[in-house]
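In this section we walk through a basic example: taking a raw amino acid sequence and producing a predicted 3D structure, encoded as C-alpha cells. The instruction is simple. Fold the sequence below.
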Amino acid sequence: MSRFQLQWFTTELIQIFSIQNRIRCRPVSYSASAILLIPSKGHELLLRAFGAIEQRHPTLRCEIIGDGPERARLTALGAQLGPAQKISFLGRKTRTQVADAMRRCMVFALPSHYEGLGCVYLEAMSAGKPVIACRGQGIEEIIQHGTNGFLIDPGDVHRLGTTLSTLLADPQLREYTGRHARRTILQSLTLAHQAKRLEQIYRGSLT
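The resulting C-alpha cell sequence is shown next.
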C-alpha cells in the first residue's frame, strides 16, 4: 500500500488510544483509536475499558494523540481510571506520525455511536490491523464480525474490554483478523477502486 493511499484514509485530527507492553523491546500490545475528541466518538468508553483490563495486563500503556473539546474531561477521567504513568495525552501529531502509529498498533478501536463509514477504520484495516467498532454504524457493512474485525453494541464497555483483552492476549487471532481486514480493503476499497466507481458514475451521467 502506498503512503498516498494510507493518507487518503486519514482524517485531519487523529487520536490514538494505545496499549503497549513495556517489557519487550518493541510494542507487543498496542491499540489505536482515531477521530476528533468529542462525546459521540466513544473515547470515554475506551478509557473505561482500559481501566477494566489494565490489571490483567499490568505492563500495558494507554496513549491518546490529538485534541478536541473533550480532552480536559478525558484527561481527568484517565487520572481516575489508571496509574498516571500508564495513560498519556500527547496532543496533536502530524499525519506522518499518525500513519506511523497506525502501522505500529496491534488493535484499532473506535466505539463511536454516531458514525458514517469512518475512513479511519479503513486506514487501520489497510494496515492489517484488527478493528473494533460499534453495530448500527456504516462500518458494519464492511466488518464481518470475527473475521476481519469485531463489532460491539454501542456503550458496551464490558464487551469492549473483553474484546481488547482477548486480542491483546492472542497474537494468532490478531494476525488472522488483520490479514482478512487488509484483504477486504485490497479487494474492493483501495483508492483505485474508488476512482473506478467515480469514473462509472461520471460515465453514467453522460449517457
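Looking at the output, two observations stand out. Residues 3-206 form a domain with the Rossmann fold fold (CATH 3.40.50.2000). The two ends are 34 Å apart (CA to CA). In the next section we compare this with other chains.
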